[in-house]
# Entry
Amino acid sequence: MATLSSAISGSGFHFAITTTVSIPASPDAAKRKIHLVHDLDPHVYADQYELAQRPGYSAVLWGTTDLEKPVSAVPQNGSVLLLTADTSHLLPGQSADIILEVPLHARYGRPVAGVHQNQAFYRVPLKRPVGFLAEGLHTTHVTATTEMPEVLRPYASLDGWPSPPLSLIRDISTADPLEIVLPVGVLDNLAWVDAGTAVVMITMFFYLMHASVKTARRISTKISTKTE
# Structure
């Protein structure tokens, strides 16, 4: 029976979830596709262009793909990421550990009020990725109750989702939660931020105006000199 375990590494706004899928020796292994689904919290996003350069799997992403918006500006149902492992190198009857590392990034969170800057952070629990096998054409018949596991049914309507029968890969990870800690802004500092931004913008405006006038005068002088 195939098993998997997942762990998180990194901190702050850039981190990764690494899942190791252990496939036992089986003559049917080559007839099955190995998938891993990440149900991502709205605080977290995956860069589909970055994923396309990762070896070892292909990826399909549903949901919000905007990389710049803060969490307050995106739909709160998050996004769904489906990985399909590259098993082309496996031989029939060969056991293997397949490692799927997913780089993820966090959005800017909502500012908080009434706390010191050192205490301004969010703890965001993440759902564990779910692994499953998509059976090949030569799989023996399975009953309707096992064709689509309950945990996968919310994704069945997604365009391009693998067709049943699907069978889950047992998760043997430790009980430690997958969690990230995100620093956020403090609402009490908002007035200072606004004032500082306004000062910088006004200063830049006058600097650019001064530079433009100076450049125009220099060009005008050169034209007058050539004319004479």
Notes: The first strand starts at residue 3 and ends at 11. Residues 181 and 198 are 31 Å apart (CA to CA). DSSP finds three helices and twelve strands in the chain. Confidence is low (pLDDT under 50) at residues 137-145.
